[in-house]
Amino acid sequence: MSKTLLYNAFGINSKYDYLKTDYEKGNVIFVIKKPIYNCQCSSCSSDRVKHRGSVTRVIRTLPIGKRSTFIKVILNRLECKNCGIIRQEKIDFAEPNKSYTRLFERYVLELSRAMTILDVASLLGVSWHVIKDIQQRYLGKKYSKPPVKGLRHIAIDEISIRKGHRYLTVVMDLDSGIIVYVGDGKGSDSLIPFWKRIRRFKKNIEAVAIDMSVSYVSAVQNNLPDAKLIIDHFHVIKLFQDKLSSLRTSLQSALKGTCEYDILKGTRWLLLKNPQNLNEKKNEKQKLEEALLINKPLATAYYMKEDLRQLWSQENKEKAIEFLKDWLKRAKASGIQMLMKFANTLAAYRTGILAYYDHKISTGPLEGTNNKIKVLKRNAYGFRDMGFFKLKIYALHEAKFRLVG
Ligand SMILES: [Zn+2]
Hints:
Layout: H1 3-10, E1 17-24, E2 27-33, E3 49-64, E4 67-80, E5 86-88, H2 102-112, H3 117-124, H4 128-143, E6 153-162, E7 166-173, E8 179-184, H5 192-197, E9 207-210, H6 214-223, E10 228-231, H7 233-254, H8 259-264, H9 268-272, H10 284-294, H11 296-308, H12 317-333, H13 337-348, H14 350-354, H15 364-379, H16 386-394
Parallel strand pairs: 2-4, 6-9, 9-10
Antiparallel strand pairs: 1-2, 3-4, 4-5, 6-7, 7-8
This protein binds zinc ion.
Zinc ion is lined by residues 41, 43-44, 46, 80, 82-83.
């Protein structure tokens, strides 16, 4: 065993002397020591130091094949003539108080790009917590302060991380695709720390995409009075679909015991599908048409939904204004309660819906990230540590770490 190998393969400074190699319980242990003439005071760096005993520390480093490998370092206790104090010699290949070398940390981070925490832990023969700690410190250094300076277009949305129990409010920079904020809970309170963080940069924000939620709308209006508010069109259609589903359910239960009931049954998904996505082989188009034929209110609501989609593909804002006006008129004249109610909701959010023609943004990109967050959550037991979970979310756009574990 030579110093050069220790230096080149294990990053051990050549100031250390190699003493011997021990083999214990299948582990490899290199014993090293810095001679006194290579030692300096750990506080003032003076080399006027005297040996005052020693202590031993064992530090994990890169494995050799499948064998766990350790550096056993005999550390001098040094009396500094300058400081007049006895201190322990500093270790220069590991962070203070860590039981592994910096090289080991880097190796863990490399492996983490392709493996789960659990996989890395079992491969290296350490606990899950060691790997998690290494990841957390790295992520903390890199991502604890997401960039908010250049924000111009943002999207805000909530995601449910435990069904109906726990929510996170997420803000995305739509120009870079970076998640710039993750807040606990939903509604305006969950955004308070975000407004504080962007205080100095608020003026740059031109437009915000959100869904039709009163609390987000007022939070944005209060905190970004100059920004345009865009009601996300996916959320509008989604809400309409929910209402359409309940309409079908109530119409269907009113028909119980008749043959119309059977025709309506099982059409829920067909009603929500884009007409061009209906499956020919499964006769979906025909089934849907039959259902619509026997039930006029359902048919009206269905065609109104398909029609509403056109609102976002008008030539310009003027045409869109006309289109919406006409749609609302027809909805109100339909006599169908669900449509009339929905028309009122749309009318209330009219400005935000039409603002799409000023800034064509949506919460769509955030939706994709939300799915990734859900995968992250589902596969990662141990995310009771919210701080770690949030760091992982901030790092999502880099995709350096696997989404699992
Ligand atoms: Zn000193």
